[in-house]
Amino acid sequence: MMRCLMLVALVFMSISMMAQRVSLTVPSGHAKNIEQIAVSPNGKYVASISHKTVIIWDVAANKKIHEISLEISLAAVEIRSVSITDKLDKVVVSSNDGLYCYNIQTGKKLFKDGGVTAGASLSKDGAVVYAVDFGGLQMYDAESGQKIKRIDYFANNSAGNCKFYELGNNRLLVLYFFGWSIVNTATGNIELKKFFKDIYAEKLSAYDYDKGSNTIVGLRDDQYVVLDVPTANLLKTKKPIYYPLGLCAMGNSQLLAFSHDYKTKSYKIELMQLPSLTVSKTISQPDSEVPETIFYGTKPIVVSGTQKIFYNNNNELFTVNASTGVYEKKFTNRIADFKPFFYYKNLTQRLLADNTLRFATEDNGIRQFDFESYKPIGYVQAMKRIILSADGKLMASIDKKITILNGITGGVVKTIPLPATIDPEIEFFFFNYNNSKLVYTEKLKGVLHVLDIATGVSTKLATLGTLLMRESSSFDGKYFAAITSKNNINFLTVYNLESKAIVLNKRLCEPYKDADCPSDISFLNDSYYIITTSLKEAVRIYKADDAAYSSTFNVEHYNQFSVLGGDIKNNIIAIGEVGQFQVGTHNIKLITKEGKLIKAFKSEKNNDF
């Protein structure tokens, strides 16, 4: 069921954008830029947040495991922190609209404090929430939201955008943009309180604490600065070669700095030693991989005890290994660009037995996508128009000639001339049931042909009518179905490729008299059910292997609608209607083969798929 709904969502995206460029995505990533990142204390999970959406990622599996939509006010224009637990039971978010604590497993809000806007974080054991407001440290029970303790005046009243570091022995360091404090959370004793004399002239635009060197590192007036924690003395300053964007202390007397090199049109990731700020490694990332400079490397965070750092690149998460210098995009949700409409039926017909989806893309290739891991698992370069066999072993590139290719490796198997009377942009092509032949239409003559792949010889199979108006083929290549025309009457004609016989020729309508004449036809996923739809409300269902079967019903709609896919086992068909006055959206109805409505989703809910 879930697999089918995901397929419906993918197909929906493929047909919904009209003339716009379309991307096939797993509905798992952020739509807008990432504002904050957190790593669980054990390093197994990562949380990223963009406005109202928190996504929890499994690092080892490289996929999303939870998504939470926060009940945040429109006034929350700045997300200041996010943190999660090892147990994946709680997430805490701090914004200018207050503190929020949610149960990750249920998505339910545990508590909120609208007065806390300076920053918040979970303790490592997940039992306590630390928060700062008006210079006071507030501690909450993470489960109930009950206030446990408050320590007043531990920081300057203007402290904001706070970061929290547990030092051991109940000691907590809280760092903000113009100072820091160390407090004993058990006794309430304030052990250290440092802040700059001129909080505006000396403030830090980015900052972090390095345990190894016991220093604060930051950016001040676009210069790197290193400050001694006990004394707040300035230990080192350095004017950067490149334009600085963000930084991350590694915890082992090392710093990773992110910057933009305008001269070479690249982005730099520099590994520096602390407190000297000596550069020991420089990693380059090209401009072409960075959509927005202002959203690159501004929120990096280290996986504790490792050389791995997660960093933001617009709406995507990247990792970089400080030791090897290798960076990579993680949790990819965009797979490829493809053309709408043309590949719609390819998408619905290419969910293979091994739970992978194969489809042709606009960059002239075949993509393979695993539904379990949410990862692309293969790419085969191809040519102009691509036809895939049901088992994925063969593909055909259709142009002025037909090139048969190995579907796995992309190697050329055979090249066959295309008959001169056949227009590859108009005619319908598909592989037959055993991959020995390529079947194609000659629509204006109402003819079905077959091309023997081994010999290259074309043979006329049958004349199905005077005109083929719409057509489809079963997933396994056994049946061909078309809306045909003869003597100004439209028929549903079904041809069996195995028996080489017309098995159904059912009168549908007279198009000049009947307003509800079928205008489209498709096989429902990998079944032998055939669905026809009209410009009005009529939906008709037939079976290629059962001439007696039929089901007719109406689907109420106001705008153009089409069949998106279905789950035959559970008797579910998804039909999408273009949203009123909306671009690229559908109102989706789930119905049975008998026309009974199961559930309807308005266009604003489509993201739920």
Largest β sheet strand count, sense and barrel closure: 4 strands, antiparallel
The total domain count is 3
CATH C-level class of the largest domain: Mainly Beta
User: Taking Cα atoms only, what radius of gyration do you get, to the nearest Å?
Assistant: 30 Å
The total count of strands amounts to: 53
Any idea what the CATH superfamily of the largest domain is called? YVTN repeat-like/Quinoprotein amine dehydrogenase
- SS field, number of helical segments: 2
Q: Which ranges are low-confidence, i.e. pLDDT below 50, for 5 or more consecutive residues?
A: 1-27, 334-351, 605-609
Distance from first to last alpha carbon:
12 Å
Indicate the CATH topology of the largest domain. Answer: Methylamine Dehydrogenase, Chain H
What class, by secondary structure content? mainly beta
The largest sheet has its strands arranged as 2-3-4-5
How big a fraction of the residues is strand? over 45%
The residue fraction in helices comes out at under 10%
Mean pLDDT rating: 84
CATH architecture title of the largest domain = 7 Propeller
Shape: elongated
Write the layout of secondary structure elements.
Layout lengths: L1 H14 L6 E4 L10 E4 L5 E6 L2 E6 L4 E7 L9 E6 L5 E6 L2 E6 L5 E5 L6 E3 L5 E6 L2 E6 L5 E5 L11 E6 L2 E6 L2 E6 L5 E6 L10 E5 L4 E6 L2 E6 L5 E5 L4 E7 L4 E8 L4 E8 L4 E9 L14 E2 L5 E6 L2 E6 L5 E4 L3 E5 L5 H5 L7 E6 L3 E6 L4 E7 L3 E4 L5 E5 L2 E6 L5 E6 L11 E3 L5 E6 L4 E6 L5 E6 L3 E7 L5 E8 L2 E8 L4 E9 L8 E6 L5 E6 L3 E6 L2 E9 L6 E7 L4 E7 L7 E6 L5 E5 L8
Antiparallel strand pairs: 1-30, 2-3, 3-4, 4-5, 6-7, 7-8, 8-9, 10-11, 11-12, 12-13, 14-15, 15-16, 16-17, 18-19, 19-20, 20-21, 22-23, 23-24, 24-25, 26-27, 27-28, 28-29, 31-32, 32-33, 34-35, 35-36, 36-37, 38-39, 39-40, 40-41, 42-43, 43-44, 44-45, 46-47, 47-48, 48-49, 50-51, 51-52, 52-53
